[in-house]
């Protein structure tokens, strides 16, 4: 079982979307029984809250169901997940601090490293304080990155 944890700040916009989109891509490829997929935030601002309605609405229009509730990443996550996939450089710093000294061997990466259109901009922007169009843009970035991440994992695990 290959485990992937998507991480952003509050776990209500970007990381639950990434979790849902990646799950859909994995299912589309018939690999759902090979994966454990989850999401978390580096802060506890929204613990227990559902995903942001704007994230869920954009995803639903594109045929993806976003659900669950926000939780904060913890040391056990660093020990138990194979991949810790982070949405931006600031949260990457926080995740790297958390995993220092953990027993896990998780691959910690920025999500857009797997986006063929990313160029030098490896952050998935936080759409929380912007307008509806920001959620559309983020969904596009997440979808491309999810497909690239799956390809990376397939190569590494010979799936």
Give me some keywords for this one.
4 strands; Rossmann fold; 42% helix; globular; four-stranded parallel β-sheet; 5 helices; 159 residues; alpha/beta
Tally of DSSP helical segments: 5
Which of globular, elongated, flat, extended, rod-shaped describes the shape?
Answer: globular
| Helix proportion range | 40-55%
Output the helix-strand order. EHEHHEHEH
- Characterize the largest beta sheet: strand count, sense, and whether it forms a barrel: 4 strands, parallel
Q: Which sequence of strands runs across the widest sheet?
A: 2-1-3-4
Distance between the termini: 11 Å
Beta fraction of the residues? 5-15%
Task: Briefly note the structural class of the backbone.
Answer: alpha/beta
Number of distinct beta strands = 4
| Number of domain units | 1
CATH topology: Rossmann fold
Radius of gyration, taken over Cα atoms and rounded to an integer in Å? 14 Å
CATH superfamily: Response regulator
- Averaged pLDDT, please? 96
The CATH class, by name, is Alpha Beta
Low-confidence stretches: none
| CATH level-two architecture | 3-Layer(aba) Sandwich
Descriptive overview:
The longest helix is centred in the C-terminal third of the chain and has 26 residues, at 132-157. The chain has a single domain, classed as Response regulator (Rossmann fold, 3-Layer(aba) Sandwich). Strands 2-1-3-4 form a four-stranded parallel sheet, sandwiched between helices. The protein has helices spanning 14-28, 53-61, 75-80, 89-99, 132-157, and strands at residues 2-8, 35-41, 83-86, 107-110. α1 (14-28) packs across α5 and α2 packs across α5 (132-157). It is of the alpha/beta class and 159 residues long.
